[in-house]
Amino acid sequence: MASFAHDVNLRFPLDDPVWLDFFARYDLEPLAYEDMAKLGEDLTRSVAAVAYLPAGNYFYLRQNPSYTPVASALGAPDDAAELASVLIVPAASEVTEIGQLRGARLAYTHRFCTTSYFATALLLHEHGESIGDFFELAEGYAFEAQIEALHDGSAEATMVQESVLRNWEDAGAAFRVLGRRGHLPGPLVLCGQPAQDDLAAELAELLINHRPPAGPRPLFSGFAPYRRQAVEDFCAASAAALPPAE
């Protein structure tokens, strides 16, 4: 059985009847990943039929000829073609500038996350800093959990997808925004090669034209055809911003 490998944090609508039918007809088994390093390793070791992952994961797969991007996710609720992230601290914090955060504990999802890790690296690079030696990194907080980490004191700062912060009750009063990084690509759907022609064609058609009902915490509202230039620009900027070892 072929696989549909996906990042669980991206909340793909696996239980939607249309997608259930698609998986059944093409004998695809959804494989959920929480460990994005393992997802990347597995995709390198053996070719999945379909993968849904952050653009940050694709950064490390971009030279792999086994995968072709077919669609880019759109940000909820307004079908945003590009995402933005904001660097925030609690409103009660005495920190008012990015430079004051050196050595602070940053809650982020994982080092493949576009909106929490890559966005932080890109923002710091704009300020002449490197994520490799600026923050104390606290991994394992995704989206709403990043904000919770500031509430409970587990972290002093986080870089979170802007739409997630907008949905947080009293966000304006509870947090201070220190910086913003836009022009971030949404997650990507990749088709493994060689793929059945009918699978690839129907996959692209469903992604772009089918809109399942939004769940209680929608991050993404649908898909658009792969935005090649935006992803290439993101990868070029990331190559300059990430620590050399990466």
Keywords:
5-stranded mixed sheet, D-Maltodextrin-Binding Protein, domain 2, 246 residues, 6-stranded mixed sheet, alpha/beta, 2 domains
Polypeptide structure, described:
- The protein is α/β, with parallel strands linked by helices and 246 residues long.
- The protein folds into two domains: 2-78 and 185-241, 3-Layer(aba) Sandwich (D-Maltodextrin-Binding Protein, domain 2), CATH 3.40.190.10; 82-183, D-Maltodextrin-Binding Protein, domain 2 (3-Layer(aba) Sandwich), CATH 3.40.190.10.
- It has ten helices and eleven strands.
- Strand 1, helix 1 (17-25) and strand 2 (28-33) form a beta-alpha-beta unit.
- The longest helix has 14 residues, at 228-241.
- It is globular, with a radius of gyration of 18 Å.
- The model has no long low-confidence stretch (mean pLDDT 94).
Structural class: alpha/beta
How do the strands line up in the largest sheet?
2-1-3-10-4-11
Q: Gyration radius, to the nearest Å?
A: 18 Å
The CATH homologous superfamily of the largest domain is named: Periplasmic binding protein-like II
What is the ordering of alpha helices and beta strands?
A: EHEHEHEEEHHEHEHHEEHEH
Q: Which regions have little confidence, pLDDT < 50, spanning 5+ residues?
A: none
Write the layout of secondary structure elements.
Elements: E1 2-7, H1 17-25, E2 28-33, H2 36-45, E3 50-53, H3 55-61, E4 67-75, E5 82-90, E6 105-108, H4 114-126, H5 131-134, E7 136-139, H6 144-151, E8 157-161, H7 162-166, H8 171-174, E9 175-185, E10 188-192, H9 197-209, E11 220-225, H10 228-241
Parallel strand pairs: 1-2, 1-3, 6-7, 6-8
Antiparallel strand pairs: 3-10, 4-10, 4-11, 5-8, 5-9
Helix pairs in contact: 2-3, 4-10
